[in-house]
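S.,

Sequence below, as promised.
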Amino acid sequence: MNARSRLYSLHSQWSPRLALLLLLGIVAHALWQTLFGLFAGKSLPEVVPILEKPIAEFGKWVGLLLTWWMPDWSIETPLGPLFVKRTVSYTLYEWVKLPLILFLTTFGMALLRLKAGARGLEKTLGRDDWLGAVGGTVMGMLTPVCSCTVTNIYAGLVAGGASRKASTAFLFASPALNEFAIVFMFTFGSLSGGAMYLGFGFVAAVLTAYLAPALGLTPGDFINKIAGLTCHTLHLSKPSPLQAAFVDAQAMLRRLLFPLLLSGFLAGVLVNFNLGLIQVMKNIGYEWWGPIVGTLLGLPLDINAASTAPILAALSGVVPTGTLVSVMMATTVSSLPEVSMLQRLLGKAATMRLVGWYAAYTMLIGLVINLAGL
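The prediction came back faster than expected:
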C-alpha cells in the first residue's frame, strides 16, 4: 500500500469517527445545558436544548477573530447604513455555522437511518400522514433555528428518510413556531396574541405539509442525485454505516456549498436593516393594511425568533395584535438566505410558490385577527 492509499485509508476510518464524536459532543452539551438550567430553577421554555448553540458560538468567535482589526466603516444605502465590519463578521459567522449544521444534520440522520433501519423511521418522521405532519410540527417547535439554518436541517431530514409531510411541517414550524417565538408572543402580544400565534402557527405548519405536493416540494429529487455514491466514493464494496453516513454528508455539502455561501452573504447584508422594520411599522400604526406591509417587509429579512424581542417590544401597543402576529411570523418563517438555499433543493418555481403561500397565509392571519378585533 503506497502513502496515498494509506492516507486515504486513515481518512475513511478516522474522519467519520471524529464527526460522530463532534455530533455526540453537541448533543451532550445541549442536554447538560438543559439539566443545569432545570437545577438552577429556570422554566421549561428556558431550558429546551438548542443543538446549534455551540456551532453558532464558534461561528461568532471566528467572525470576531477575523474582523477585530477592521475599522467601523459604514456605507449609506436607500435602506439605511450598511456597516462593513458587522457585515463581514456576520457573513463569516454564517459561513462557519451553515455548512457545519448541514453536514452534521445529514450525517446524523443518515447514520440513524442506516443503524435504526427504515422501519424504525417509518414509525416516526417517516410517516406521510397526519401523524407525520404533527410530528414534524412538534419537532420544529422544539428546534429553535433561523430561516436560513432550517433549510440545512430540512435537507438532512429528507436525506435521512423523513416523509414529505413531516419535513415540510418542520420547515415551517422550526423558525416560526419554536419556543422563543411562542414565549415572546405571550410576553409582548398578551395572552390572546400568544394563543392565536401558537394556534394559527400550528395549523399553518400542518396545512403546509398537506400542500407540499401542490407547492412542488420535492427535495428528494435533488437529494436522490447524491444517493448511491457511497460505495463508488469510498471504493468499498461494503462500507460501514458510519462511513456511508459520512460520505453522504460530504456529498450533500459539496452539492450545496455555493448556495450556502450565497445564503451566508445575504444574511450578512440583511442583518444591517432588521431594525428598520420598527420605524416603518410605527408609522403605519393601526392602518388596516399593516399586516400586508409587515409581511412584505419581514419575509426577506434574516431574523431568528430569539432576536425578535426588540422588534416585538417596540411594536407592542403601537400596532394591533394581528399586525404584530404577521410581523413576527413573516420575519421568522422565511428570508432571502433561505430562498437561495431552497432554490437549489426545490427549483425556482417551487420556491416561489412556497414563499407566496407563506406571504398569503401570514397576511391573511393578521388581517382576520384585526378585523375580528381580537
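The radius of gyration is 21 Å.

Coffee later?
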